[in-house]
Specification:
17 helices, six-stranded antiparallel β-barrel, about 20% strand, about 35% helix, alpha+beta, four-stranded parallel beta sheet, about 675 residues
Length: about 675
């Protein structure tokens, strides 16, 4: 008989904790959730909003074993993750195990280390029903929205589709961005660059055209450029003003879930799901020769930038010992107002375990992510980088040029880590020679460059997470599953890291926005996140929040169902007749993209694949080149005569582009 039974979610976490606790303590895993709402029906009483939880299929034997272990133990500790989801799992476990309250305890730890686990067991608490209710509210609201709106999509678009409260807003952001790109009209603009040089010693640098008579002048046409270049033909280039200064750059704070996902995407090319899987492994435990099996990072679902005083002290010792006292600065970071500050930022649990020291104990992906987390944390407690800056204004007749330069005076935190800039305008810095005011410079050459304004960039996984966080949509635990879900539903697709709405995604988005704009919008979704936070803080009753939402929502659903009853979606007509009934087939959108269907459905149920071709012909036989996609949605190009008519042409690259690539 075990004196203590500890229940966690995963076997990896169980194995790590077992190593810390000897004697008659038993550690077992629940394998995540053990109860949930049924899949076959709504599972929520729409009068009382009481959820109908059932045991998850396939977990019967596990539940029986957990009950037996709990009954035999003197004390039961539920040690699921330290967030709302973990609290809800703990509550479900406590409910289903049927153990008297006096021997049931809830424990949490932000890091899986010997000290943290033992300290948690010495300071147990009761299950926090406010946190549990916040998770229940999210689950029930999402179930109501999904189960009430999805049938509309089944009737109007296709069976099997589903709508989600947060997922649909994410699709809307991506579809809105695509629409912006499609409507974008590029505007012409020009830049002029002068390569200038000092006489003795001769040193060259580049200055950029600024304006006329010290006022900014934007150039929009070749005619304007030609006039300026003509005016500058015999101009003298005189240094008008020199400004020297110093600029400080501070380090970024330690990682939150969102910033870790963004940086791992940009620096390591990790998909969000992969980042969270690797981080989970680092948190739950890795076998290290000097320490045994330990969790290497703190809990990876957080939106706090706070760190413990122990971690702060350990960082100081490491930085001063490795880089010197000049490189250390005790820094505190302000956490966002709406952050759930229950636990720390993501940081290494043992500062003495440097990435290179434990590299052999980690997989390649674990090493990459651990190094990113470790270096970001260390840099966050380091001194600012200091730059000497130089700004030069140069006059040429009535026209003005500018050149900016900077040199690193003190590297500070940049010795360890530099944050990636994503779609941010990077300043242009020149290596400017030593100059004096009123000095005349030689013009070596002057060039003009035509450019066009560009549309806003498509979202990547990283920039979408950033947008969701900034708009208050979702929380640390929801970013990855949200994007994973809309990719799996094929509402969006990833093309070279960029997220595009599919045709199916556009149709579903249009239908939802036109009919459920009160629910599928950024403001409502952000407001609900605030409501969940208030429930977690004990300021709101969760069923009251659902009740206030449900009344108006139910009326909207009823109205939409009536309005759409006799409305048929208009489909684009193809130029291909149906071989069964002669009607012109239409292009529809299914789970795997476009297909041809007879408009006479259900009388005529003829359907077949829709094959898209490109203008370029096959470089081998001159046949039509078709666009196809792999199971993972990667585009490739194949000749219509491959393989049946003997042509072997197939390529990842468009035929015309292949020839361009060969020339470049």
């Amino acid at each position: 008989m075990a004196d203590k039974l500890i229940i966690v979610e995963s076997p990896a976490k169980a194995n790590t904790i077992k190593k810390f606790l000897g004697g008659s303590t038993k550690v077992v895993a629940s394998m995540g959730h053990i109860r949930d709402l049924p899949k076959s029906k709504l599972g929520v009483d729409t009068k009382t909003f009481e959820p109908e939880y059932i045991n998850i299929r396939g977990k019967g034997d596990l539940i029986k074993a957990l009950k037996k272990e709990a009954k035999a133990a003197k004390k039961v500790y539920i040690a699921t993750d330290p967030d709302r989801e973990g609290e809800a799992i703990a509550w479900h476990l406590a409910t289903i195990l049927g153990v008297e309250k006096s021997k049931m305890y809830r424990v949490t730890f932000n890091e899986i280390t010997k000290d943290a686990v033992k300290k948690a067991i010495q300071n147990p608490r009761e299950i926090d029903m406010d946190l549990t209710d916040a998770q229940q509210a999210r689950r029930v609201l999402d179930r109501i929205v999904g189960y009430k709106i999805s049938p509309v999509l089944w009737k109007k678009v296709q069976k099997g589709l589903s709508a989600g409260r947060v997922q649909s807003v994410a699709v809307k952001l991506i579809a809105d961005r695509e629409e912006e790109i499609e409507k974008f009209i590029p505007e012409e603009y020009w830049n002029i660059y002068a390569t200038l040089a000092t006489k003795k010693p001769k040193k060259s640098f580049e200055a950029k055209f600024y304006g006329k008579n010290n006022e900014k002048l934007d150039i929009h046409s070749k005619e304007e450029v030609d006039q300026i270049l003509k005016d500058l033909e015999n101009a003298k280039y005189i240094v008008n003003e020199i400004k020297r200064g110093e600029k400080k750059r501070n380090p970024a704070p330690p990682f939150t879930t969102s910033t870790m996902q963004q940086e791992a995407s940009r620096k390591l090319n990790f998909a969000l799901r992969k980042t969270m899987q690797v981080a989970q492994g680092l948190y739950e435990g890795v076998k290290i020769p000097s320490k045994g099996t330990v969790g290497l990072i703190t809990y990876m679902r957080t939106d706090s930038t706070r760190i413990s005083e122990e971690a702060r002290a350990a960082a100081k010792v490491h930085i001063e010992g490795t880089y010197g006292t000049d490189y250390y600065e005790n820094r505190y970071y302000k956490t966002k107002n709406d952050a759930q500050d229950a636990h720390e930022a993501i940081r290494p649990t043992y500062v003495d375990l440097t990435p290179d020291e434990i590299k052999d104990s980690l997989t390649t992906d674990q090493y990459k992510l651990y190094k990113l987390i470790y270096n970001r944390f260390i840099a966050s407690q380091m001194s600012a980088a200091i730059f000497d800056t130089l700004s030069v204004k140069i006059n040429a007749n009535e026209y003005n040029f500018k050149a900016n330069g900077q040199t690193v005076k003190f590297k500070g935190f940049m010795k360890v880590y530099v944050e990636t800039e994503d779609h941010e305008k990077k300043e242009e810095f020149e290596n400017i020679p030593d100059l004096k005011e009123e000095q005349e410079l030689q013009k070596e050459k002057i060039e003009s460059k035509q450019s066009f304004t560009e549309p806003p960039p498509r979202y990547t996984e990283a920039s979408l997470v950033k947008a969701l966080e900034e708009k208050g949509i979702g929380r640390p635990s929801t970013y990855s599953p949200t994007i994973t879900t809309i990719l799996a539903r094929r509402y969006i697709e990833k093309v070279q890291k960029q997220l595009h709405p599919t045709e199916l995604g556009k149709i579903v988005n249009k239908l939802l926005i036109e009919n459920f704009s009160d629910v599928i919008n950024v403001e409502f979704t952000a407001q609900m996140e605030e409501k969940f936070d208030q429930i977690a803080e004990g300021k709101e009753m969760w069923k009251k929040v659902i009740e206030e939402f449900y009344g108006p929502f139910e009326k909207v659903v009823e109205r939409v169902e009536k309005e759409l009853e006799h409305v048929q979606l208009e489909y684009e007509e193809s130029d291909e007749p149906c071989e069964k009934c002669g009607r012109m087939m239409v292009i529809k959108y299914g789970k795997y993209g476009k297909f041809l269907a007879c408009p006479g459905y259900p009388e005529c149920q003829n359907a077949k694949p829709y094959i898209e071709t490109i203008e370029e012909v096959c470089p081998k036989c001159g046949g039509a080149v078709q666009i196809r996609k792999t199971k993972k949605r990667r585009t490739f190009y194949i000749c219509e005569n491959n393989p049946n008519n003997g042509c072997e042409y197939i390529s990842w690259t468009k035929p015309g582009k292949e020839r361009q690539d060969e020339r470049s």
